[in-house]
Write a structure and sequence with these properties.
Layout lengths: L13 E9 L3 H12 L4 E4 L13 E2 L9 E2 H14 L3 E3 L3 E7 L2 E6 L2 E10 L3 E3 L15 E2 L2 H4 L7 E5 L3 H10 L5 E5 L9 H9 L3 E4 L2 E7 L6 E6 L5 E5 L2 E4 L3 E3 L29 E3 L11 H22 L5
Parallel strand pairs: 1-2, 1-8, 2-5, 8-19, 10-17, 11-12, 11-17, 12-13
Antiparallel strand pairs: 3-4, 6-7, 7-8, 9-18, 14-15, 15-16
Helix pairs in contact: 1-2, 1-6, 4-5
Length: 323
């Protein structure tokens, strides 16, 4: 059975790759760089936006070696170009199914099937929704999950940012470059964001905080006009006039391909060891889709590199010795 002549019984021809990488965020791009430099045929699949959340981020200040910062899209382009220079192949399509056919994995796409010796899942996570009336109807009409992408549309307006973590404050600070006033609404009485971001947000005169409060409705017909709010302690309802609302209340891992294949925690994150290995031989998970991820660019890239190094070792031990 030669490298590209594998045919599953009753099915079309399946193309062979060494390392299949599912997801084109920082973890996937770093995995692609390391796998390609190891001279493995490495293919990365991305069905949405290459770079993931980083592609929609403004200035990145906390990536080592870049003291002046870098714009998210520029960093994505640099990481991708570097990986492709060493031979990474990029397919802009979604993986629709992933299954184990020992000792390989078979991946389905709309364009065909692929067989991989090792798979690294770096599919990232999707922002959580408020799940309140008006949110879905007004998404793209004032409701957004990326201030970096959309804040410029609200120049001189009042906007709200929902959440209390690093992303909420970072995006709130970005929104303050354009908006007249930024209301950060948090359901608790204290923020979860890093001390540095809290200092910056509190020092920004355009930002104010609304504590112990949740959004119960997004109001407007063709565009957002206000938010219906409720204090979680007193149950007092109120209304806040805004023309934009940015939601940052966590994220859900894109782990549907792993469901039933490897153990997941209650939040849908895959369990891995320090080498990013799951309990399935040759299947690795890196970045925000794994348990206990730091959810930072630098840690995601480190995860991807770790997974690719171990995938190379795995292929050498499992496949190369028989040659």
């Amino acid at each position: 059975m030669t490298a590209r002549a594998y045919r599953a019984e009753g099915e079309e021809r399946v193309q062979d790759v060494d390392v299949a990488i599912i997801g084109g965020g920082p973890a996937g791009l770093a995995a692609g760089l390391y796998a390609a430099r190891a001279r493995r045929r490495s293919v990365l699949w991305e069905g949405a936006l290459l770079g993931g959340q980083i592609a929609a981020t403004g200035t990145i200040e906390n990536y080592p070696g870049l003291p002046d910062g870098i714009e998210g899209p520029a960093l994505v382009a640099a990481m991708h170009g570097q990986a492709e220079r060493f031979g990474l192949e990029t397919h802009y399509e979604a993986i629709t199914a992933l299954q184990r056919e020992p000792p390989y994995y078979v991946l389905d796409t709309a364009a065909g099937r692929y067989r991989a010796k090792a798979v690294i899942v770096t599919a990232g996570a999707t922002p959580n929704k408020l799940d309140v009336p008006g949110e879905a109807e007004l998404t793209g009409k004032g409701v957004s999950y990326c201030a970096t992408c959309d804040a410029a549309f609200f120049k001189g307006d009042e906007v709200a940012v929902i959440g209390g973590g690093d992303t909420a404050l970072d995006e709130g600070l970005f929104a303050a470059r354009f908006a007249r006033r930024v209301h950060i609404i948090h359901r608790r009485s204290a923020l979860r964001a890093s001390a540095l971001l809290q200092e910056r947000a509190r020092a920004q005169p355009k930002i104010d905080f609304t504590w112990n409060t949740i959004v119960t409705r997004v109001n407007g017909r063709d565009a957002v006009t206000s938010l219906s709010l409720q204090n979680v302690e007193s149950a007092v309802a109120s209304e806040l006039a805004v023309s934009g609302v940015f939601v940052f209340i966590g994220q859900t891992p894109n782990s549907s391909l792993l469901d039933g294949l490897v153990p997941l925690d209650r939040g849908g994150h895959a369990y891995v060891n320090l080498w990013m290995e799951t309990d399935r031989p040759g299947l690795f998970v890196a970045g925000d889709v794994r348990v206990a991820a730091a959810r930072q660019l630098v840690s995601a890239a480190g995860d991807g590199a770790t997974a690719a190094i171990r995938a190379d070792h795995y292929i050498a031990e499992r496949f190369d010795r028989g040659r």
